[in-house]
Write a structure and sequence with these properties.
single chain, 267 residues, mainly alpha, two-stranded antiparallel sheet
């Protein structure tokens, strides 16, 4: 532990955090690729595997076999950042540790959120794990909320990482209660949804009105999230054709939602 603390101090003094975080900008080269560019260079493979060994995350070796050099570097960087976070201590302290302050800046958060635009499953999975583990206090979530993170997490609900994405949304919801203050809620929902809302318990109504998902999903679907477990909610959300007297949800509605979110970011 003493060696680790000494190394961490040297790392900070050498501006190491800014250096490795700045390397994430190169990952955006992936947006210009027309096809997957998996590693075919022995030197690059050797270097990245050595980096992976230092992080101690063996599962990353499987990632390297199917992703490009830049994607693999980003995965390793997030694992390095994760290791650094372990030496930070209590993130809820005021003032926040300098390392945590750096990653909570708008510029840093923007880079993390925009990496979701690459829509690489392995990278998105690593980013979500990083956010869920380390950004779980009021000071960090408030910086994320208005930078597109909720939209990106919604885009991942139908994927294998949907469970993790939903957990992050729920953890953010614990700290952020004013996300929907600018919504004209009564004019936003349909008569059918208003009727459905009237049948919902008052406590659940309050939770639905403050839900970070209210902008994206129908009230009846959010009610399922409130009264059932996350697995049942995700099963319904991923369903290709769910139709009964209570809810209508299908693949067309889901695809329309995802297209609207993508269009928002493209604009």
């Amino acid at each position: 532990p003493e060696y680790a603390k000494a190394n961490y101090k040297m790392f900070k003094k050498a501006n190491g955090l800014s250096t490795i975080f700045g390397m994430l900008n190169f990952t955006f080269k992936e947006l210009d690729r027309n096809q997957d560019d998996v590693i075919d260079d022995e030197k690059s493979t050797f270097v990245i595997n050595k980096m992976a060994n230092y992080t101690g995350i063996k599962e990353n070796l499987a990632y390297f076999e199917r992703n490009s050099v830049e994607i693999n570097k980003a995965i390793v960087i997030f694992n390095i950042l994760d290791k650094l976070f372990e030496s930070v201590g209590d993130k809820n302290l005021v003032p926040m540790p300098s390392f945590f302050q750096y990653l909570s800046k708008k510029r840093s958060i923007n880079v993390i959120v925009q990496l979701f635009l690459i829509e690489n499953h392995d990278l998105s999975k690593v980013i979500m794990s990083f956010i869920h583990k380390n950004f779980n206090c009021y000071f960090s979530t408030s910086g994320f909320i208005n930078n597109g993170i909720i939209e990106m997490l919604v885009m991942n609900l139908h994927t294998k990482s949907g469970k993790k994405a939903l957990k992050i949304i729920e953890s953010f919801n614990e700290f952020v209660k004013d996300y929907n203050d600018d919504l004209n809620y009564e004019n936003m929902i349909t008569p059918e949804e208003r009727c459905a809302l009237d049948k919902i318990d008052f406590e659940n109504q309050v939770n639905i009105k403050s839900s970070l998902l209210l902008r994206f999903l129908p009230v009846s679907l959010l009610d399922i999230l409130m009264i059932e477990n996350n697995k049942i909610f995700l099963d319904v959300y991923r369903h290709d054709n769910m139709q009964n007297e209570y809810i209508i949800w299908n693949s067309d509605l889901r695809n329309h939602l995802l297209q609207k979110i993508r269009g928002h970011f493209e604009a």
